[in-house]
Write a structure and sequence with these properties.
Elements (H helix, E strand, L loop, with lengths): L1 E2 L10 H15 L20 H25 L2 E12 L2 E8 L13 H14 L5 E7 L3 E8 L2 H10 L17 H11 L7 E8 L9 H10 L2 E8 L5 E2 L1 E3 L5 E3 L9 E2 L3 H10 L4 E4 L2 H14 L4 E11 L1 H25 L1
Parallel strand pairs: 3-4, 3-6, 6-7, 7-12
Antiparallel strand pairs: 1-2, 2-13, 4-5, 8-11, 9-10
C-alpha cells in the first residue's frame, strides 16, 4: 500500500482526542462512560441496554469514520512492479556499389544478385535495429533513410540494379567510396543515442570523389564504425558488357586483353581500420552470407532492463466505505434519539 499524500494520516490523532473528549463529556454529565473496550454488560447503569449498545456502536463508527476520512485524503494507491525491456539496438547504413563490375559472374548468378540475396537475409535477422541504404558509383545517393520498416527495405534492396544510377550522365560513372561514406554520415545525423555502423559493399577501387581515408576519419570522429566488404574472387573476374547488338560479352582493354573487375583490397582494409571496424572478403556465395552474419554478430544489441513501479488510485473503495459508515452513523444517532 502506498499513499500519495501520507501527511493526512496525521488526522488519525483525532481518534484518541475523540475518545478523550467523550470520556470527559460523560463525566461532566455524570453519566456512566461506556468504554469501547469493556463488555456491554458493564452498561447496566444506563436507562436501558439498547442505549449502551447504540452508544458503543456510535463510538466505534466515529472511530471508523475518522480513520476512513484520513485514509481517503491520504490517497491510497496500489503499486506493482513493471519490468520494461528496451532494446536500444543500432543504426546501420549499407552502402552498395552499383557499378557495372557488379555484374561480374565469379559469384553466381553475379555479384550484384548475390549481394542483394545476402542483404535480404541480413534484414531478416534484424529486430530492433534501424537500417538505411545508400547506392553509389560516381556519386552516392540515398536509396532509403534509416527506418524500422523492414518490408519496404526489402523492396528497396530488390530494386537495386547497376542501372540505379545512370552512368551515362557526366560525373556519375566510377567508384566514389569516399562520397558513399560522407552520404551515410549525413543519414546518421539524428541517431546520436544509438550505435552507428556503416557497411560498405564494393568490388571496385575508389577512383573519383572524396578521399575514402579522409571520409573514414570523419566517420570515426562522429563515432560511426565502418565495415568494408570486398566482393569477388582473388584475381578478379572478366568485366561484363554488351556489344553493339545488345549481346552479353566481356570488356577488353585497348591492347585487346580482357578487362578484369578487381579492387584495391589494401585500401578497403585501411578504410575499415580508420573507421574502427573490420574488412571482409566475400569471394563466393556462401562466404558472402557468412560475412553478413558475422558483421551482425559483432554489433551486439545493448539491452537495458528498467524496473518501474506503477501506482493506481485505490481511494474510491475507501471513500465509498466512508459514505456508508456515515449513513450508518446517522442511522444510529436517529435510533438513539428515538430510544430516549
Amino acid at each position: 500500500m502506498h499513499f500519495a499524500n501520507p501527511i493526512f494520516l496525521y488526522l488519525l490523532i483525532f481518534i484518541p482526542l475523540y475518545l478523550w473528549w467523550q470520556k470527559k463529556y460523560q463525566k461532566k454529565n455524570k453519566g456512566i462512560y461506556v468504554s469501547v473496550f469493556d463488555d456491554l454488560q458493564s452498561a447496566a447503569g444506563y436507562n436501558s441496554r439498547w442505549k449502551a449498545i447504540f452508544k458503543y456502536a456510535q463510538t466505534v463508527l466515529a472511530i471508523v469514520i475518522i480513520s476512513l476520512f484520513s485514509i481517503t485524503l491520504a490517497r491510497p494507491q496500489g503499486g506493482h512492479e513493471k519490468e520494461e525491456q528496451s532494446k536500444k539496438g543500432i543504426d546501420i547504413i549499407i552502402a552498395v556499389d552499383v557499378s557495372e563490375s557488379m555484374l561480374a559472374e565469379d559469384l553466381q548468378p553475379n555479384r550484384m544478385e548475390v549481394a542483394k540475396a545476402a542483404l535480404e537475409k541480413f534484414i531478416n535477422s534484424l529486430s530492433d535495429d534501424r537500417l538505411g541504404v545508400v547506392v553509389f558509383s560516381g556519386q552516392a545517393f540515398t536509396q532509403s533513410p534509416l527506418t524500422f520498416d523492414y518490408n519496404i527495405l526489402r523492396e528497396y534492396i530488390k530494386n537495386i540494379t547497376t542501372t540505379s544510377i545512370n552512368k551515362n550522365v557526366r560525373g556519375l560513372s566510377g567508384t566514389a567510396i569516399g562520397d558513399a561514406i560522407l552520404s551515410a554520415l549525413n543519414r546518421f545525423k539524428k541517431s546520436e543515442d544509438r550505435t552507428k555502423v556503416l557497411i560498405v559493399i564494393t568490388d571496385g577501387d575508389a577512383n573519383t570523389g572524396a578521399d575514402p581515408a579522409i571520409a573514414a576519419k570523419k566517420a570515426s570522429d562522429e563515432n560511426v564504425k565502418i565495415y568494408t566488404v570486398g566482393v569477388g574472387k582473388v584475381g578478379g573476374a572478366p568485366l561484363p558488357t554488351l556489344d553493339y547488338m545488345g549481346r552479353k560479352t566481356v570488356a577488353r582493354n585497348q591492347d585487346g586483353s580482357v578487362a578484369m573487375a578487381t579492387f584495391n583490397e589494401d585500401a578497403l582494409k585501411n578504410i575499415a581500420k580508420i573507421g574502427g571496424g573490420q574488412y571482409f572478403r566475400a569471394s563466393d556465395n556462401q562466404s558472402f552470407d557468412t560475412v553478413m552474419a558475422e558483421i551482425n554478430s559483432l554489433e551486439k544489441r545493448e539491452v537495458k532492463m528498467n524496473m518501474t513501479i506503477e501506482y493506481t488510485e485505490n481511494y474510491f473503495p475507501v471513500l465509498l466505505s466512508l459514505f456508508i459508515m456515515f449513513l450508518v452513523f446517522l442511522g444510529f444517532a436517529t435510533q438513539r434519539s428515538e430510544i430516549k
